[in-house]
Structures are given as C-alpha cells and as structure tokens.
Amino acid sequence: MWPLAQDKRAWHSYRLLRTQDQPAIWLNEEIMARWRPEMRPYYYDSSRFSSYLEQLGIEYPTIRSRPVSEEDTPQVGVPGGS
User: In the chain, where are the structural domains located?
Assistant: First the structure.
C-alpha cells in the first residue's frame, strides 16, 4: 500500500471554496437554454418506467442466446472450452 495512505495524519485538506460561495450557474445559462429542450426526452420519468434503462429500451442483464462472434464460441480441447 502507498505509504501516505497508511498514515492519515500526513493528509491535509484545504477548502477552495467558502461555505457561503454559490455555484456560478450563470456561466452556463446560454448553453443550458439551448440544450435543455434537447435533453428533456432523456429525463427519467419514474411514473411511467421502473428504471432508467427501461425508459431507454435497454434490457438488462443481457443474456446471450448465441455467441456474439466466433471468438466467443467455446472451443473443444481448450482450457475453459467445452
């Protein structure tokens, strides 16, 4: 293990922001005004879907009924193969 990770007394942290500092959201105001409508279809709607993956149409876990490629095909006589 890295020596400093063992001795937590060697770690010092310093605040870069004060507790009263607010995020500078006005810097992205124009960008968000342009892209927010484009992002809305991807917002998760928990009233219609049980998961975000379901909303995107992704089935998980993915269970393969056949190999994706010949490299995935089990080879006879090879360790790990059939």
Answer: 23-64
Render the chain in DSSP notation, one character per residue: --HHHH-GGG-----SS-TT----GGGGHHHHHHHHHHHGGGS--TTT-SSHHHHHT--SS---SS-SSGGGS--TTSTT--
Q: Which distant-in-sequence residues (6+ apart) come within 8 Å of 48 by Cβ?
A: 55
User: For residue 18, what are its two tokens?
Assistant: 């004060």
Q: What is the pLDDT along the chain (82 residues), one digit of tens a residue?
A: 556 556 666 677 788 888 999 989 999 999 999 999 999 988 999 999 999 999 988 888 777 777 777 776 666 665 655 5
* Tokens coding 80: 């790990």
CA distances from 81 to 51, 63, 72 (A): 36, 19, 10
